[in-house]
Amino acid sequence: MQSVDVLIKGRGAVGSCLALRLAAQGLRVGLTGGEAPPRADDVRTYALNAASVALLRDLKVWDALPADAATPVFDMVIHGDGEAKRAPGRLSFSAWQQGVRELAYIVDAGALDVQLAAAVRFSPHIHQVEANVPADLVAVCEGRDAASREALGVRVDARSYGHSAVAARLTADRPHQGVARQWFGPSGDVLALLPFDRPQAGQSYGLVWSCPQERAQHLMALSPTEFEAALQQTAGATPGQLQLASERASWPLTLARADAVSGAGWVLLGDAAHVVHPLAGQGLNLGLGDVIALAAVLAEKEAWRPLGDERLLRRYARARLAPTLAMGELTDALQRSFAHPSQAMRMLRNQGLNALDHLPPLKRWLTQRALGH
User: Fold this and answer.
1) Which of 272, 67, 91 is nearest to 180 (CA)?
2) Where is the signal peptide (predicted)?
3) pTM, two decimal places
């Protein structure tokens, strides 16, 4: 192939969705990066909001997922610091109260990757390219360590939290009933149990446990029985007896933002442009929001304007500035607040959760932002 309209670097979920969306708009798309084979040990799950699900449905990917690969979340309960017992905190969100069918879907990352790869293979407008080919526009979707971003001279403001995430699949002896739960611990721990139907329908969870790196290393080194005991001590009896159903995985947590997400002939999307703390489960949603925004900008461009026009691409940058900045600041503020060791601060945090729980308009506004509306 001599040239393409858009060259997409990166074959993750963001890059694949962008390729499919632009191909559906009639553009010739070049996609770099080989297709990774499915991993049997992949324990990742994605929390996808309504906007992300709508995108995947439009791309004919959502309905191709196995029935047990996407589990609806009907309620979410956030538990404050349990050690501040004089003022226990609790905040809940309900799909019924918000007037929606579900708050989110918990999706098997490996299953989504398989379906995206199949859709890409069968698209006549997407061409696998081994190296750079001439293109009117280059879209960098290579993730947080994107080499192409560095080659463009883009600087990244990155800060390590000094924390890591520990992920696994769990089973429970009680039905999850579509309820996601999150606990904030006294040292900045954030334990999330995401209702899931693999490996056991109605009684499984995806685990994401964010904690200081030393504690994360300790958790990874524990035997399965010891890990389950530590997990149960944090979660308590509410979700029932929890057992590991997979190996554990871990990765460091950072907050990062590129100083520019567009320029003459190029754009950044997904983790190449912004990385946030996973406590709100919005990382991939932000990346797919980038896809939706860029596709809209390109579809609405003036006929005489080239795809790589710098002024055109600024429209994309402006459209994504507020959502990505707001989510990064919100998750960072929450992480900092709950990591504060002061007993007085911990009680204040719990009181704040209780107060917010009694403010339906503010809860509704937060829910709408999380849903992508």
Assistant:
1) 91
2) none
3) 0.88
* Res 13 pLDDT > 80: yes
Q: What is the pLDDT of residues 64-91, one digit of tens each?
A: 999 999 999 999 888 765 443 444 566 7
Half-sphere exposure for 335 (CA within 13 Å, toward CB):
24
pLDDT tens digits, one per residue of 150-205: 889 999 998 888 889 999 999 999 999 999 998 877 667 889 999 999 999 999 99
Token output for 329? 């600041």
Find the length of the chain: 373
The pLDDT of residue 125 is above 90: yes
Which residue matches tokens 């995206």?
116
Hey, where are the domains in the chain?
4-69+106-158+254-339
SS (H, E, C) the chain: CCCEEEEEECCCHHHHHHHHHHHHCCCCEEEECCCCCCCCCCCCEEEECHHHHHHHHHCCCHHHCCHHHEEEECEEEEECCCCCCCCCCEEEEEHHHHCCCCCEEEEEHHHHHHHHHHHHHCCCCEEECCCCCCEEEEEECCCCCCHHHHHCCCCEEEEEEEEEEEEEEEEECCCCCCEEEEEECCCCCEEEEEEECCCCCCCEEEEEEEEEHHHHHHHHHCCHHHHHHHHHHHHCCCCCCEEECCCCEEEEEEEEEECCCEECCEEECHHHCEECCHHHCCHHHHHHHHHHHHHHHHHCCCCCCCCCCHHHHHHHHHHHHHHHHHHHHHHHHHHHHHHCCCHHHHHHHHHHHHHHHCCHHHHHHHHHHHHCC
Over 70: is that where the pLDDT of 363 sits? no
pLDDT in the model for residue 326: 77
Mention the CATH class of domain 4-69+106-158+254-339: alpha beta
